[in-house]
Structures are given as C-alpha cells and as structure tokens.
Specification:
The protein has about 240 residues and is of the alpha/beta class. The chain has one domain (about 5-235): TIM Barrel, CATH 3.20.20.70. It is about 30% helix and about 20% strand. It contains seven helices and eight strands; from the N terminus they run E-E-H-E-H-E-H-E-H-H-E-H-E-H-E. It has an eight-stranded mixed beta sheet. Helix 3 runs parallel beside helix 5, helix 5 crosses helix 6 (about 170-185) and helix 6 packs parallel to helix 7. It is globular and about 50 Å long. The model has no long low-confidence stretch (mean pLDDT about 95).
C-alpha cells in the first residue's frame, strides 16, 4: 500500500463523518484538470501502513472515518486488506475511485469493507479520452462499477468536475444517455450526483481551464436530473 499523503482531519471528504484522508500514489488516468497531479507517477510513500495504523490508534474519539483517495486507490493490490484493517480498528471507510477497476470494487463490496463510495464520472463517452488525457477510453468498466453500486446497499455518489472547455450541454446529455440503461435495468436512479466546478491550482497540469458560470452548472444539473434522486452543485 503506497501512502503518498495524509490529511489528518477533514470535515468534507466523508459525508456525515469527521475523517482522516489517505492519498494513494499512482493513477491510470491523466486528467488535464487534476488537482493531485503530484500523485500520478506513484511518488515515494510518506509513511508505511504500520505507521498509519499507529497514527489511527491515537485518533479514536477524534475521527470516525477514513477516506481513501488518490491517485487511484484501486491500483493498490492490498487495498481491501487495508480497508478491512481500518474497519477492524473501528472506523468507517470511504473509497474514492475513477471506476476503472470493477473487480476491485466488487471485492470490497462483497467483503463489506467499505461504507461509502464516490465514483468520478469524467464526461460522456465521446469526450472521455480527451477529458482523461488518454488515447482511448472504453466506459464498460466504469458502467460495471456503477451498476455494482446500484445493485448494492452501500451508499454512494457520482460526481463530475465540470471544466470549460471540456464540458458542454451536449457532453452532459451524453452522460445522461450513458447512465439511462443502468437506471432502467436496475430500477434505481443514481442516489446522489454532484457537479463540482473546477478550481484552478498550481498543481493542475494544464493552464487555460476554467469553471463554467453558475447558470451553466444549473443547466447541466437539470439535464442530469431525470437519472438522479438528488443532484447538487458542490462548492
């Protein structure tokens, strides 16, 4: 388990809980708007798992959850064992993932080692490669991950970081079209969907990106509303 960063206290990363946030190293995507670009190439670990659990033992009564984010946590081969150990220590676990590794997610769900999942939906299928900085992107694994969550009892959310010029009303309609067969097949809408306006930072790999106006975000939320139980603009 490569622990590439640790935020000791977060009031926003894990809905309804006070948490610590673990950042894993490495990611299979290269999104041009990534806030954590320093984690993409699997940087050296800042602590060992043993050191982390030593830290965690001293946080009882101060936090009640751990958020695991990245990078992409599902690249870690011992992720489920790590989450199980957190649960055994008495803390809830949230997993942030890009949805590209449904087998890892399925294992976590089947072993009951995760309490909340957030899946990043980057864009509609036609725009996914450009939005993730990859040559091509097949959304099959992403859709499998979402379907696993729709058929499970684990609370989850989908979220899209909205960036100009990568997102348009047309691409957001494409997201809805991509999700419609899943909601129809499972008989369940996406319980929570969040649109997150892009915030520029020094760590973002590409310059010239910006957040849409609030009116556009509201328009995008309206487009996605038919496939969601709740859709909100976050931030």
């Amino acid at each position: 388990m490569i622990i590439a960063g640790l935020q000791k206290l977060s009031l926003v990363d894990f809905p309804g809980r006070v948490a610590s946030t673990v950042f894993t190293g490495g990611c299979n995507l290269r999104c041009p708007f990534c806030h954590n670009s320093g984690l993409l190439e699997a940087p050296p670990a800042v602590m060992t798992p043993e050191e982390f659990f030593g830290f965690l033992s001293g946080r009882k009564g101060k936090i009640d959850g751990v958020c695991i984010t990245g990078g992409e946590p599902c690249l870690q081969p011992d992720l489920c064992d790590f989450m199980k150990q957190i649960k055994t220590a008495g803390f809830a676990v949230k997993l942030d993932t890009n949805g590209c590794f449904p087998k890892h997610l399925e294992k976590a769900l089947s072993q009951n080692v995760v309490d909340y999942v957030a899946v990043d939906v980057k864009n509609g299928p036609e725009q996914y490669a450009a939005t993730t900085g990859t040559e091509r992107f097949d959304t099959d694994n992403l859709l499998r991950s979402i379907e696993l969550l729709l058929t499970s009892s684990v609370p989850f959310e989908l979220r899209t970081t909205v960036v100009e010029p990568l997102h348009t009303a047309e691409s957001v309609r494409s997201i809805r079209t991509m999700l419609e067969p899943l909601t129809a097949r499972t008989g369940r809408k996406i319980p929570e969907y969040y649109l997150q306006p892009f915030v520029d930072r020094d760590s973002v790999p590409f310059a010239g990106l910006k957040a849409p106006e609030r009116e556009k975000l509201a328009e995008y939320a309206e487009i996605l509303a038919p496939v969601t139980e709740k859709i909100r603009i976050r931030g």
